Amino acid sequence: MITGKTKTVGILGYPVGHSLSPLMHNVAFDALKLDYIYVPLPVEPDHLGQAVAGLKAMGFVGANVTIPHKVTIMPYLDELDRSAEMAGAVNTIVIKNGRCIGYNTDSQGFIQSLIAKNITIKGKNAVIMGAGGAARAVVCGLIEHGINQIMIGTRSNPKAQEFVKLFPAGTNIQGCDWQEGMFTEAITECNLLINCTPIGMSPDHGVILPINWQNVKNSAVICDLIYNPPLTQFLAHAQNGGHIVINGAGMLVEQGALAFELWTGETAPRNIMYEVLNKVMVR
Ligand code: NAP
Predict the structure, then answer these.
(1) How far is CA 1 from CA 21, 31, 39, 54, 55, in A?
(2) Ligand 1 centroid distance, CA of 165 (Å)
(3) 64: Cβ below 6 Å to ligand 1?
(4) 203 C-alpha to center of ligand 1: Å?
(5) What CATH architecture is 7-104+250-280?
(6) Which CATH number fits domain 108-247: 3.30.420.40, 3.40.50.720, 3.30.70.100, 3.90.580.10?
(7) What's the mean pLDDT in 165-173?
(8) Percent of the chain with pLDDT over 90
(9) CA distance 199 to 173
């Protein structure tokens, strides 16, 4: 029951109607009998600064941040945690003593989703397709956990080159167009192949990534950040070829669980969060 004492969090995005986070978090609050509510907050880009001031004014205890505000929200916050500075984006805000502190739980959320499946990162070679915000969070996490080498493939070489410059000198990361020979070489050496583009996401199920599967080692683990559908064509192809596959549901739950823990100080009920998402995802 919502009362005058109920604590409020929400998700700032535009649009937010598709987001599964309100469902996932409200079920989690109920499961732990915490007096919190999570509300969708559609905010047009021009109103973002007012929205952040509004969160403080209305006594919100925190929020999630999604497309298109993850980067543009940063100047409106009072403080950035190292996770947000590293990822160059904010997906979680904690509001304490009238101050908005920005965090990024996507990076750790992705890593936790691998650890949950006993996947080793240290010393491995990763190939990443895409060079957007999610790819940056993934790369930060992989670097922090001792990845050996990273190749970024995109549909345009300059984008890959720009992306690579975001990381400290000395990082073993290269980028190219995924049609280039050096991408094919990296694919043959990779232990982790990760789709960080929206290719294959609902409703465009039929669009496929340009991978020559003959070049991918049988032992390579194949990840897709997409969780809707749970099995993209990319993952289905990999699974048929005998690869271990991991979809984006683990990352979605883990990034949400970490945000939940920042707001409430309680351990998030991850299994319940997974269950509720599984029920509503498109098959
Ligand atoms: P983003 O910042 O817009 O970046 C998207 C990347 O994909 C860019 O490199 C873009 O290339 C590339 N791309 C987009 N459409 C393409 C196409 N048709 N062909 C080739 N490349 C294309 O998006 P993001 O925030 O990184 O999100 C990427 C994906 O991760 C989305 O599917 C999102 O739903 C998913 N995600 C999942 C989670 C989770 O919790 N599971 C969290 C975050 C994101 P250009 O720069 O050339 O356009």
Answers:
(1) 19, 13, 14, 24, 21
(2) 18
(3) no
(4) 15
(5) 3-Layer(aba) Sandwich (3.40)
(6) 3.40.50.720
(7) 94
(8) 92
(9) 23
